[in-house]
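In the previous chapter we treated chains in isolation. Here, by contrast, the input contains two separate entities that must be folded as one system, with a combined length of 227 residues.
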Amino acid sequence: KAGVTQTPRYLIKTRGQQVTLSCSPISGHRSVSWYQQTPGQGLQFLFEYFSETQRNKGNFPGRFSGRQFSNSRSEMNVSTLELGDSALYLCASSPDRAITEAFFGQGTRLTVV
Amino acid sequence: AQSVTQLGSHVSVSEGALVLLRCNYSSSVPPYLFWYVQYPNQGLQLLLKYTSAATLVKGINGFEAEFKKSETSFHLTKPSAHMSDAAEYFCAVSEGGGSYIPTFGRGTSLIVHP
């Protein structure tokens, strides 16, 4: 069974640009969560989607958005990039509504210059 | 509200020595508890989880953790450290049927000396 796939693995963007990251969950998993990981703040929850609906949202500005498609694949978008958005963005998928176990992808390393 | 505190941002052990990584949690309802490991430039991999069954939980790679409700702790142990155990370890708590989005600790970096 293939794991969680995140693309791209590495990305360099300029301040003010926007970026879209992609996550393909494990087949059959309907819940996809996104996290931002930085040395200073650790792992912070961005949002979670289940069956194309955003169920939970973390404390991030509106520049961070996401969506989920009917095949459970998810994308997150960051508009008007800031230097502080440089981070490892992790996607995790879970099979059901109650997240008893999250399977993580390898992440997308975003560098904003 | 739920929270996790991992004591010690770095833990250093010799190869073959006992590994003990500490985790204390706060939760208003019976929690689910997890330990994850992260290798450089990789995602998180689940080591073990507690979901209200046996209080002593065995995981992969020889790790285990014990849920102690009276101490609100879920410390991770391994009897004998391997060089390959060097990584970042994260403890996480979720509130099961409530706000089930896990909250992660800040992580503990395990350093293993030869």
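The radius of gyration of chain B is 13 Å. Residues 94 and 100 of chain B are 5 Å apart (CA to CA). Compare these points with the single-chain example from earlier in the chapter.
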